[in-house]
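notes to self, project folder thing:

trying the whole complex as one job this time. last attempt i did each chain seperately and stitching them together was a nightmare. two parts in total, labels are on each line so i dont mix them up again. if this works i'll redo the older ones the same way
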Amino acid sequence: MHPSSAEGTQDTVWVQEVAFIDSVPRWLAMSFVFLVFVGSWQLVTSLGIVSPIILPTPLETLNDMIFVGQNLMTGGYMLGSLWITIKEVIYGFALAIAIGFSLGVLVGETAFGEKAVMPYLVAIDTMPKVAFAPLFVAWLGFGIESKVALAAFIATFPIVVGTAAGLHSADENARMLFKTMGASRMQTLIKMKLPSGLPQVFTGLKIGAVGVMAGAITGEFLGGGKGFGELIRVAASQLNTPRVFSLILYLSLVGLALYVLVTWTQRKVVFWHKERVGAYDG
Amino acid sequence: MNAAVAQDYSGAPLGAPVYELTHVSKTYARNKVVALEDVSLTLRKGSFTSVIGSSGCGKSTLLKIMAGLIPPSKGRVVLQGNPVTGPRRDIGMMFQQATLFPWKTAVENIVLPIEIRDGKAAAKKAMDKAHELLEIVGLKGFENVYPNELSGGMAQRASICRMLITEPAVLLLDEPFSALDELSRDMMNMELQRICREQHATAFLVTHSIQEAVILSDEIVVMKPRPGRLAEIVEVDLPRPRTLDMMTTPKFGAIVDHIRGLLDKGEDM
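result (full assembly):
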């Protein structure tokens, strides 16, 4: 039987060890990384390791961000520029969604699309899409149209791929079940394949949302205009690096907002699909 | 039990032939493999038939032909007097996976076959019946729950309801509980027996488990592979309702041994 010792009647309570680095709360961990980043930035600039013309100090950048922020808040010329870029992004994204989704359905649902259209899409997708910018400028001029085109062009492909992959993701049992229910092709597509594929569609949308931003700014770099990209280009040509930094930071807020919007929509629409925070893959 | 639920489309009396296969063969054109050779089979109203055999014996092919998913190469396939030339409302089917759609609640999943065949309005009308069916399978209170909150066994119960909602004349069961753990599986098999008896259902089960086939069936179709054909149709004359205790009786053991013997012979060929 049991050895009659003092421990014999005690509860088996012991402490499971958690490494300190894993036990730090999220806010503290994030603040720590931020401080390390800004601290080393300050160190590198104030010690003169890097010339201030190449890399401004964090404080200079902050001052410029305040200046740019005031200009934006008071409806200055920068607000007009930002609005132009936002319009390019919104129009570009809407266009990419419309075209990408339609092509995705064509490629994912029909044998014709998969056989005859997909190879060309893959071929175009492997091209460096930014290189098309001068063409868009030549075709559509220096206005926002050429930027919208480039933004949409870059964002379309991930949406095509996401949609097509989504339509293929429905499992064999679900297909068989719909067959036994006598469902038409359209019913199978709308009631089963599309909803099953929504997580992948949104994965495509998220990658597209990042691409659309890059497309709009690249378009402005190469095709002029009056957008935020142009402000960055001008500031850079004047070696006003603090301005470049602060403009990029404000621009990243726009990109972040778009990404959050897509993620939020995904949570509402694909409510049954739980995914990790910040995950790209559906 | 609600009388309206306890009916199916076949007004046929118990014991009358419901599903008849005569000299059915299937050769896949693609690779000229003979998947099924000269299978004749009759399912009678209210009977429970199982088909068992090693892999490659053609039981999936047989089931697909019976479901109207693929055409036979030869032979007659007749359900309730009409040849089966495609999926039909009077054929209910259940798979190894529950295959409930996560964007629909339990009842919405159950009325899906009605929604597909007759539209949204008809599906709405069928909601009451879906609630009754959920009660029959013991899922009362889970009507508006989404499938990811259901356990494997509960999901399969819901998929039983989805199969029954169109009041099919025949239930085709493709290893419906093989993905469940053994305890749930035994319990679900007893549930299945009870539901089939209450509904006077004509059921056809594909399984890998000899015990499962014997405890549930009136007749067991034992098949041999390459080419897939009937080895023997074994009658199971254990009394109804069956209980899990019966699995320890000598008679049960004798039937299991007999079927195992048939399957082993099949392996040698």
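what i see at first glance: Chain A touches chain B through 20 residues (CB under 8 Å).
need to look closer tmrw
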